[in-house]
Amino acid sequence: MSKPFIDRTLNILIKGLDAAMLRQQTIAHNIANVNTPGYKKIDVRFEEKLKKAMGSLTGNTLSVTNKKHLAGRTGGEIIPEVVRTRNIQQRQDRNSVNLEMEFSKLAVNSTMYNALVQQVNDRLGILRYVINEGRR
Amino acid sequence: MKLFKTMAISTSALTAEKLRLDVVANNIANINTTRTAQGGPFKRKVVMFREKLDRELNRITLSDNAKFSGLGVQVTGIVADTKTPGKRAHNPGHPDADLEGYVNLPNVDLNTELIDMMTANRAYQANLSVLNTSRQMHEKALEIGRG
Fold this sequence. Notes:
The structure holds 2 protein chains of 2 kinds.
Chain A (H helix, E strand, L loop, with lengths): L7 H25 L9 E4 L1 H9 L25 E4 L14 H35 L3
Antiparallel strand pairs in A: 1-2
Chain B lengths: L4 H25 L15 E9 L9 E2 L2 E2 L1 E11 L7 E3 L11 E3 L5 H32 L6
Helix pairs in contact in B: 1-2
């Protein structure tokens, strides 16, 4: 399963990109359903899982709490999770979407995505440099 | 279409809210229609909105290994509002007046319709904004590996 040139850092960056794109889809879905009666908003859980996995990247094996987890060295299986939040404030039509909150999530998420793209490019740039300089 | 699912989600909302706007416009246009093809006065119409999920993924839940099945919103029907009572006006000279001289008017209330219109407009703007942000993110992704 090891891919060439993808080290731990790049792997995590790519997972971050996937999570951010998933989050973008959930935000779009929430805002699309802002007027749907009875609709409850959804969120993506990723950062807490990432933090836990990062803690064990310093050398120890990763904690395995799910049969899908691999106690590997490449960042394991940090899978973003889509959850539907319950028991929060709703409008009269039982819709729980807070438009302002979703917009601020949108701003943060797109900035994060751009930052990750830049980071990935930096890493690839380093690889490219190493490959080119190795020729001489 | 899977590649640009974010855009499809926002587009579904734009279509739905536009449809709501059409229905509102039709309601307002018929605010004085006392006779329809079915007989009685015009009854206002409302749109039914429902969350749209990808049934092809064979699940109604939202995620399975980050395969997200949300596809935005859909209009499941345009139904007549038969619960809101219509107004009656005393006008014996009107061709559609009943035996007591009252004309049954449509149950369209201008304030209600205008609020629906503003709701549709706000949602439309919001989804348009999300569409633009998604597009920017996809354009940014194209920069990976370039240069």
